[in-house]
From TrEMBL:
Pfam families: PA14, PMT_2. Keywords: Cell membrane, Glycosyltransferase, Membrane, Transferase, Transmembrane, Transmembrane helix. GO terms for biological process: lipopolysaccharide biosynthetic process; response to iron(III) ion. It comes from candidate division KSB3 bacterium. Coiled coil: none annotated. The keyword Signal does not apply. The chain crosses the membrane at residues 245-264, 425-443, 474-494, 559-579, 616-634, 640-670, 682-700, 744-763, 770-787, 793-814, 826-846. This is PA14 domain-containing protein.
């Protein structure tokens, strides 16, 4: 580098640079103080493997606050009964007065201040709370807390109550192993905010300096990089021409190959077992070595296979290289048991919803036995995610190099450690070489491009492209684009549409389907009911009318329940294609926008176009109304009116959410200063149609149905916005950032620079197309972020606009890069990146679509009954009302038929039916099953656990009489 150039740049910074250097120095000083000034807080605990504090302690630890968490963490090596703990240290008293202290413990505990006993809670007893008091002056006092555990459960809580203050847990902030100097207590709390302030100021000053001299800085950095690449090319070629270096490189490559081959031979993992039953019994159907904590390591893509009873087990050894407290987080929907050294450290005894089980365990260095058993739930996709980490570090999957199917010896461990280090070194070397190689290509791309175009391969490729003009013209035609959209829709939207139970794709699907089912059965169309005499006011009727029509004309199946949504999704893609073509005068933008939208996970799979809900039809009207507005210049009055009709029909589908386009249009007209349109009849006609069409139904229901206004208007609109009706969906203002990042990945990453370019074109170039898309995006995002209730699908109306914006920015960027003759490789690189993103997003969604959806227990049960064909059977629902079943259970019970289902509270009637000898399936609650002796005498049973609503409805099971069930789902008595 030319140091004189850098020194001249340094001299030109004047005062700003001096301030930046000074702030940086203060920041370093603050960092040093942060490690020197802080004081340790808590009490020093001594842990004894007996109940009377005798002998030397097993170990010591600094505990803050005073709890039994350290003893529980050490449960692999420290006893869980017959132990004792003594905590000693100092307590800081801020004000004079009478202080009260208390303990709640099982078994004994006591607390002493300066040798004076304040709390006496000794002896063997159940959980008991005892308090005591003492007068204290400001200052430090010695504190001594003792606890012992006999047998049974253990527990300890330590409280205090300062003068004129409520009682609370004794805080760690006032406890110290040694009394610190007074100045440290004052200075320590101020270090963190001062450090943050200095960091912000330093970054701000240096950022301003860099922005102010960005041109000269860029030129100097570019010159330095070019000089570096020149040296790399010169000396690299010189090195490669030297015979000895070539021989050395050959030997190194040979050693690398040997290392890789040896690493393949010593691959690590656990012994995995796959059982075709629900209780890990008998011989496993499959046993494999080198298995990780992933289902794919036992069964290839298990969720693609038909649903059947299965249980999984992983056994082996875990190698701990550093003794520390480790945290294990296991996320699963099924039963789970995790053991370390034959001690159960984590369990989940519920297979009806996805939960994360967390535990902390102190592990010594060396080998530890590990055993994980997993029983999948029913009705949802298999879910098993095992992560671990030190308490002070992030959570990651357990590395396979630390897992062993059999106990290894020390030589094997050393060999594997060397192999691991070798792999790390190879990876770092490879990354470094690739980075240097990529830098050389980017800096010297004109030279590289000139060499590439002279090669025979590139010449033949360019000749083939030139001769393929007819193919390019065919691919650019509208008909071919529509065929591409249709083909992708068949693969991603219609494919595997009818698999899985209705509620396994979305909870609302079961609720809306029940209303449509009742409508088709009774012929009551204008007012909505979910059951006899139970009105349904949550949503407007348009989509429910269509679903009921399908049930009446085409039949009752999952495919026909979702066919409307898939058709509306295809129509939405077609509208978006023409939208992009008209907005940017480019067919490519329209096609690319549609394909990008198909690659969004949430838009395709979550509460949208593959689900029997309202969103697909509402989104079609949403996008169509905005499209009609954009082409309103062709026929001002007609297209304004059609836009109003679309908004009105959308509101008749999903209430006020479909009226958001009205806000988008108003904001856009204001930003582009088209105020004259507010004075036209066409605009106000659109407003009247948008509000009037749904108003016809809403007003009639207000008069026809008492309570409609309170539920449909007050609760479903105002209380929803305030988060009162679904408190579990109340999130902070930044919730949708994470939703968009995860639900629209990988396009959410590209969206950041695309939005930046879009804002630049909208502000600096007054690009009205970008202004329109940005208004659309920001109105949806800000509007729903203001609402306290937030769910993932509230961002669905944003994704079509974001897809079009990314497509338009890509075409603009590609044209700019293609015209840049100084950097001829950037345009092909951008095109290659686009192909990679399209392939990855579409293939990921295709894998999700072809995955076999899980079926609810009630769905599997009704399918089993269908196989009985002409055999007479009865289904008895004992002492249960319809409201004690969730929407999916009601829907599938309706499929059985009223003539075969008996609802009764008479146990004698059930007994008479069983004595007749026909197969009888009795649905009972767990309470009745455990308390009524008659239900103990059955041949087999079947668990009926709802997946999504387990906390709302009682647990139930099905008892089988007079029938030997030919299914492994039915467990023998």
């Amino acid at each position: 580098m030319n140091m004189r150039l850098w020194s001249s740049l340094f001299r030109k910074q004047h005062m700003a640079l001096k301030i930046g250097v000074m702030l940086f120095g203060l920041l370093l000083l603050c960092e040093v103080a942060a490690h020197v000034v802080p004081v340790q807080r808590g009490l020093q605990g001594r842990y004894y493997p007996n109940a009377n504090w005798n002998g030397p302690p097993a170990f010591s630890a600094l505990d803050a606050p005073i709890t039994l968490s350290t003893a529980h963490v050490r449960r692999l090596t420290f006893p869980t009964t017959m132990y004792s703990i003594s905590w000693k240290g100092w307590i800081w008293i801020e004000t004079v007065g009478h202080y009260r202290f208390g303990t709640r413990s099982d078994d004994g505990s006591d607390l002493n201040i300066n040798g004076q006993q304040v709390v006496d809670n000794g002896g063997l007893h159940a959980p008991r709370e005892v308090w005591g008091g003492i007068d204290l002056e400001p200052g430090f006092y010695q504190i001594d807390v003792k606890y012992f555990q006999g047998k049974g459960a253990d527990s300890l809580e330590v409280f205090w109550q300062p003068p004129n203050a409520p009682r609370s847990v004794l805080p760690a902030a006032v406890l110290f192993p040694l009394p610190p100097p007074r100045w440290r207590l004052i200075l320590a709390p101020a270090i963190s905010p001062v450090r943050l302030l200095l960091l912000v100021l330093t970054l701000g000053v240096w950022g301003g300096v860099l922005i102010g001299h960005r041109t000269s800085l860029y030129q100097r950095i570019r010159g330095s990089v070019e000089a570096f690449t020149e040296h790399v090319l010169r000396y690299g070629l010189l090195v490669l021409r030297t015979a000895r270096i070539q021989m050395g490189i050959g030997v190194l490559l040979f050693l690398i190959v040997l290392l890789i081959l040896h690493g393949l031979q010593v691959s690590n993992g656990l012994e995995g077992r796959y059982y075709q039953n629900l209780h890990w019994d008998g011989d496993p159907a499959l046993t494999t070595e080198n298995a990780a904590f992933r289902l794919s390591s036992l069964v290839d893509t298990p969720s693609y296979a038909p649903q059947h009873p299965a249980s999984f087990q992983w056994q082996g050894w875990l190698w701990i290289q550093t003794a520390a407290v480790y945290r294990f987080d296991v996320t699963t929907e099924g039963f789970l048991f995790l053991e370390l050294d034959d001690v159960l450290v984590a369990e989940k005894r519920d297979n009806s919803n996805v939960q994360t089980v967390a535990t902390r365990v102190y592990l010594t260095d060396g080998l530890h036995q590990i055993d994980l058993r997993y029983l999948p739930g029913t009705g949802a996709a298999y879910t098993l995610d095992v992560r671990w980490g030190r308490s002070d570090r992030s959570m990651t999957p357990i590395p396979r190099r630390l897992l062993f199917a059999e106990e290894p010896d020390e030589t094997s461990l050393l060999k594997r450690q060397l192999v691991s280090w070798g792999y790390r070194g190879i990876r770092l070397l490879g990354i470094l070489l690739l980075a240097i190689f990529g830098l050389v290509i980017l800096v010297r791309q004109k030279l590289v491009y000139g060499r590439l175009v002279q090669t025979a391969v590139v010449q033949r490729m360019r000749k083939g492209v030139g001769e393929g003009r007819l193919l390019r013209e065919a691919l650019g035609s509208t008909s071919v684009h529509l065929l591409i959209i249709l083909a992708l829709s068949l693969l991603l939207v219609f494919n595997n549409l009818g698999r899985g139970s209705i509620i396994t794709t979305d909870f609302d699907e079961g609720m809306h389907t029940r209303v449509a089912q009742y409508m088709a059965k009774t012929g009551v169309w204008w007012s909505l009911y979910s059951a006899e005499g139970v009105p349904y006011y949550n949503k407007p009727p348009l989509k429910i009318w269509l679903s009921a029509l399908t049930l009446r004309l085409l039949g009752d199946s999952e495919f026909f329940l979702r066919i409307w949504d898939a058709v509306f999704g295809l129509a939405l893609f077609l509208v978006l294609y023409f939208f992009g073509r008209e907005l940017f005068a480019s067919k490519g933008v329209g096609l690319l926008g549609v394909v990008i939208l198909m690659g969004g996970r949430d838009f395709l799979l979550t509460h949208s176009i593959r689900t029997g809900v309202m969103d697909s039809l509402m989104l079609l009207f949403f996008v169509t109304s905005l499209f009609l507005f954009c082409i309103r210049k062709r026929h001002f009055t007609r297209y304004y009116a059609l836009a109003g009709v679309c908004m009105g029909l959308g509101a008749l589908t999903k209430s006020v959410q479909a009226l958001v386009p009205l806000a988008i249009l108003v904001v856009y007209l204001v930003l582009t200063r088209q105020h004259a349109e507010f004075k036209t009849r066409a605009f106000w006609g659109m407003v009247v149609l948008a509000i009037g069409l749904p108003g016809l139904w809403y007003v009639s229901q207000i008069f026809l149905s008492p309570g409609f206004f309170e539920v449909a208007i007050v609760q479903q609109i105002f209380h929803r916005v305030q988060g009162k009706i679904h408190p579990t969906h109340v999130h902070g203002p930044f919730y949708f950032f994470q939703v968009i990042y995860e639900g629209f990945f990988p396009w959410s990453v590209v969206a950041v620079p695309a939005l930046g370019i879009g804002f630049w074109q909208a502000i600096r170039r007054h690009n009205t197309q970008m202004i329109f898309l940005l208004t659309w995006i920001l109105t949806v995002f800000i509007g729903f972020s203001i609402s306290k209730m937030k769910v993932v699908w509230y961002m669905h109306p944003l994704y079509p606009a974001l897809a079009l914006l990314i497509a338009a920015v890509f075409f603009w960027t590609f044209r700019v890069l293609k015209a840049d003759t100084a950097r001829p490789l950037l345009a092909p690189l951008a095109l290659g990146l686009l192909v990679v993103l399209l392939a990855s997003s579409l293939s990921a969604n295709y894998e999700r679509v072809v995955e076999e959806p899980r079926k609810l227990p009630i769905h599997l049960f009704t399918e089993y009954l269908q196989r009985l064909q002409e055999i007479p059977y009865h289904v008895v629902v004992y002492d249960l009302s319809l409201q004690e079943f969730d929407h999916a259970d009601r829907y599938y019970l309706n499929r059985i038929g009223d003539e075969r289902v008996l609802w009764t509270q008479d146990l004698d009637e059930v007994a008479r039916l069983v004595r007749q000898g026909d197969p009888v399936f009795v649905i009972v609650t767990m309470r009745d099953y455990e308390t009524i002796p008659f239900f103990q005498d059955h041949l087999s049973r079947y668990w009926l656990a709802p997946v999504y609503a387990d906390r709302l409805y009682p647990k139930k099971l099905i008892l089988v009489y007079n029938h030997m069930a030919e299914s492994r789902w039915f467990l023998p008595r």
